[in-house]
Design goal:
By secondary structure, the protein is α/β, with parallel strands linked by helices. It is built from 18 helices and 26 strands. The strands form six sheets. The protein has a nine-stranded mixed sheet with strand order 2-1-10-9-11-12-13-14-15, sandwiched between helices. Strands 16, 17, 19, 20 and 21 form a five-stranded antiparallel sheet that branches. The termini are far apart. Bound molecules: adenosine monophosphate.
Length: 513
């Protein structure tokens, strides 16, 4: 079971079919993609790389990302996808920890040589052209054999609570993720196309797997990132497109559609399916997205340790407005995906009754093999086959999971638990509010108090008293923020997650000041 066999299959079956686009330009057919990947695989082996060796990809989204992924797998190598926004020192830490030998980079992301490598290749150089060069008439050697438990993707966590950890994802994990996309997220046909707006080093990149399974087209925007105007335009000619988007990206697409006056039908010409996840999607935001862009959304909840596979909230659930629990459902992350079991447990791993809040546990074939060279962290996260996600939530009678927060984001004020998400959901329904992040700040009297960072919609001046009044009307007094910070924007990482650690640090610094 080598993921490279998926590409080999399509290259033999339909070599002339369009596979990869850079913007509107055809970059490779299935035959070319496979031959280039196989050629590079051979050159990597000739250079002395052996199955199991690690290769870093530190680049912006680029059509060659896909060729490199499949080249590494073709040669039995392990890919280390690195967040393009990391500092060179952080990348070098990962290179050392992963004992990576080669890196492929784009120079906008890696402007300097990185230490600790045998070789660093600029994917836009003549050197890369040579490494990937193949003739359409070349024979296609089969991929090296790999077992289901061999590691394919060594994904480093964002490390917001200490050093990043290398999550070992196997060929089985990723194949499981790919197959259940068809059942739990969206069926894919050969005529479909996926567009890579969000960073390919994260979930967006591995969604190439289900789209390759279907022999669909893969579109990398020429800008290498998220430009709503470009994505809508690409969709009108190459689409309708499917894509993965963090909630912040969804917001940008919806803002754009509204700004230029596009309705659900127009959105349907550009987008088939927008899969969102990776961070909380608030009820007010998904309602607006559905209104503006129509029923083309599906939510997934997962984490690096069980990538893209945990729960999903289907298009049908999001459309079922007549359901008596619709409002709860759209604020949930949906039901367990097919290959996994999901339960909510106490700290010892004992099941909690339905409706009780506890840690979310996941078990199934998508769950990682463990953390790279870190048996202690592995033993803490994987117990009796269950992944302890560190997320806190509760299940209802119908199996829908509602996430509260990461356990480390919970605020304990005067002995009461406050889940920031609940306060955020409420503040987002206040007029003029665009974005909110709620964190705890230490307080001598209460232990912690609730602080809300609020971003106003363009042209709106927010008034703290009205925000407070809004909270008083909708949530218990003790949950409402004691302090408000009106800010222009929220700090976010490259994957669109709000950096609550940075907000807490900001509060500590102002306290100290
Ligand atoms: P990562 O490992 O970087 O993919 O981050 C995974 C974390 O993002 C999860 O453990 C959750 O805390 C959060 N997350 C992922 N999907 C969702 C979602 N649909 N709703 C809310 N939070 C999410």
């Amino acid at each position: 079971m080598n993921l490279a066999c998926l590409l080999e299959r399509h290259a033999r079956m339909q070599p002339l079919r369009a596979a990869i686009f850079e913007g509107w330009t055809l970059h490779a057919t299935y035959g070319q993609w496979a031959r280039r990947s196989a050629a590079l695989a051979q050159r990597l082996q000739q250079a002395g790389l052996v199955p199991g060796d690690r290769v870093v990809l530190f680049m912006r989204n680029h059509p060659r990302y896909l060729e490199l992924m499949w080249a590494c797998w073709w040669a039995g190598l392990v890919i280390v996808p690195v967040n393009a926004k990391l500092h060179a020192r952080e990348v070098e830490w990962i290179i050392t920890n992963a004992q990576a030998r080669w890196a492929f980079v784009t120079t906008d992301v890696a402007s300097q040589p990185l230490h600790g490598l045998d070789r660093q290749v600029d994917v836009e150089s003549a050197e890369a052209d040579g490494l990937l060069h193949a003739q359409d008439t070349d024979a296609l050697p089969p991929p090296l054999p790999r077992g289901p438990d061999d590691v394919a993707w060594l994904f480093y966590t964002s490390g917001t609570t200490g050093r990043p950890k290398g999550v070992m994802l196997t060929h089985r994990n990723l194949q499981t993720m790919g197959l259940c996309y068809f059942v739990d997220v969206d069926p894919v046909a050969a005529d479909d196309a996926i567009v890579y707006g969000a960073p390919m080093s994260h979930g967006a990149g591995i969604y190439a797997i289900p789209h390759l399974m279907a022999g669909a087209r893969h579109v990398v925007p020429a800008s290498g990132g998220v430009d709503p105007a470009e994505l809508f335009a690409l969709g009108r000619t190459l689409g309708p497109l499917s894509t993965f988007a963090a909630p912040t990206i969804v917001k940008r697409l919806v803002d754009y559609a509204e700004e230029v006056g596009l309705g659900p039908q127009d959105a349907g010409l550009s987008f088939k399916t927008i899969v969102y996840g990776g961070a909380p999607m608030y009820r007010a935001d998904i309602e607006r997205a559905l209104n503006v862009m129509g029923p083309r959304f599906v939510q997934i909840y997962g984490q690096g340790e069980t990538p893209m596979v945990g729960t999903s909230l289907s298009r049908a659930h999001l459309a079922d407005t007549a359901h008596p629990r619709y409002r709860d459902r759209i604020a949930s992350v949906g039901v367990a995906q097919t290959p996994v079991q999901v339960r909510v447990a106490d700290a010892a791993g004992h099941d909690l009754p339905t409706g009780s809040v506890g840690e979310v546990l996941v078990r199934g074939d998508s769950v990682m093999a463990g953390y790279w060279r870190d048996p202690e962290a592995t033993a803490a996260a994987l117990r009796d086959g269950w992944l302890f996600t560190g997320d806190v939530g509760c299940l209802d009678n119908d199996g829908f999971l509602t996430l509260k927060d990461r356990s480390k984001d919970l605020i304990i004020s005067g002995g009461s638990n406050i889940y920031p998400r609940e306060v955020e959901e409420v503040l987002l329904t206040a007029p003029g509010v665009a974005e909110v992040a709620v964190v705890g700040a230490s307080d001598p009297e209460w232990g912690e108090v609730v602080v809300a960072f609020v971003v106003a919609q363009a042209g709106v001046e927010l008034d703290i008293q009205s925000l407070d009044q809004h909270c008083l009307e909708l949530i218990a007094r003790f949950k409402r923020p004691k302090h408000y910070r009106l800010v222009d924007s929220l700090p976010k990482n490259n994957y669109g997650k709000v950096l609550k650690t940075a907000l807490r640090e900001q509060l500590q610094q102002t306290d100290a000041g």
